[in-house]
Amino acid sequence: MAKEMSFWDHLEVLRRMLFRSAVVVVAAMVVVFLNKSLVFDVIIFGPRTSDFVLYHWMCQLGEWLGWPGFCPEAFSISIININMAAQFFTHVSTSFWLGLVLSFPYIIWELWKFVAPALYAHEKHGVRRAFAFSSLLFFVGVLIGYVFIFPLSIRFLGTYQVSEIVSNEISLNSYIGMFVTLILTMGLVFEMPVLAHVLSRFGIITRKFLRKYRRHAIIVVLILSAVITPSADAFTMIMVAIPLYLLYEFSILVCKKS
């Protein structure tokens, strides 16, 4: 029979888990840092022009549907830097956040190893599947945020003008801040079904409970989308609110019926 661990034993296990996770995050950060051209020129700054893949898809869809107006007009958003050290520190901070994104599956695995001993055998099966599925959902959220929500948001905000007299030149910090916020936010909110599944396994929530409060959830989703969007415009808020609500409906499906 395994010896029961003390509080300090648990604390030591947690410390080791955090240390291993930090090492993996730093390693991923270094990889991202050393691939500056690919990360910034191709990936991060790709959506700032009409050459981005989403707009090609929109043009093809518009041609297929016979809606030529569905194809966006050519555009390019100018990005400027006005701070001496901003580009270097932006390179470092962005490398960290992207390293964290890449390390997410390993962090989830470490978290599972930490909580698994505290679960009963019948609880481990469902929770283990939820942890395994969480990495997939996280990257799906990141991908949707990068391919759809971020490009449409910066196109709307970056090309909108109150007057032709005022030209748009977006600061580097503003662009990167919006990129990191939306990408990470979409990755994390896509964990909603996993959280719902785990809570239902422990009997905290049920499918009936989520259905009962569906109308309340719509209000909460709108409030959350307003809070997590990097700007106060209604367009970006709606773009975030739609997948949030769809995730709520999916959470209902993965919960236990009673």
Overall mean pLDDT stands at 85
Q: How many domains make up the 3D coordinates?
A: 1
Biggest sheet features: 2 strands, parallel
Stretches with pLDDT under 50, minimum 5 residues: none
Report helical residue fraction. Answer: over 70%
The ordered H/E elements are HHHEHHHEHHHHH
Count of DSSP-assigned helices: 11
Find the count of extended strands (DSSP E, 2+ residues).
2
Overall SS class: mainly alpha
Distance between the termini: 35 Å
- Strand-residue fraction? under 5%
Strand order of the largest sheet: 1-2
CA-based gyration radius = 22 Å
Shape, principal axes of CA atoms? globular
TL;DR of this structure?
The protein is mostly helical and 258 residues long. Helix content is 73%, strand content 2%. It has a two-stranded parallel sheet with strand order 1-2.
Description:
With 258 residues, this protein is mainly alpha-helical. The protein has one domain (7-254). Helices cover 73% and strands 2% of the residues. It is built from eleven helices and two strands. It has helices at 7-34, 36-44, 53-65, 86-102, 104-115, 121-159, 172-189, 192-201, 207-212, 214-228, 234-254; strands spanning 78-80, 169-171. It has a two-stranded parallel ribbon with strand order 1-2. Helix 10 crosses helix 11. The protein is globular, with a radius of gyration of 22 Å. The two termini are 35 Å apart. The mean pLDDT is 85.
